[in-house]
Specification:
The protein is mainly α. It has a domain at 31-78. 69% of the residues lie in helices and 0% in strands. It has three helices and no strands.
């Protein structure tokens, strides 16, 4: 009987002391920031439409900058 009383605590300590790397992994969100913003823009949360408009404005400005860079490259190549 006394030997069982010693075995149980030793097994518990051994189980707690051993660590498994997979149990310590961090769960990360797999969506990109743009995907999160798109989901938010489509929701019914107050102000969510502003996120969609901001994304549209950012896309428009990015396209403008890309076009102007292309024009600048075309005019400087001789």
């Amino acid at each position: 009987m006394k030997s069982i009383l010693w075995v149980v605590p030793i097994c518990l300590i051994a189980a707690c002391g051993s660590s498994d790397k997979s149990s310590q992994t961090v769960n990360r969100d797999t969506l990109t920031e743009r995907q999160n913003d798109s989901i938010l823009a489509g929701s019914k949360i107050p102000g969510a439409r502003a996120v969609g408009r901001a994304m549209t404005a950012a896309d428009s400005m990015s396209a403008r900058v890309q076009r102007s860079d292309t024009v600048a490259r075309d005019t400087t190549e001789f």
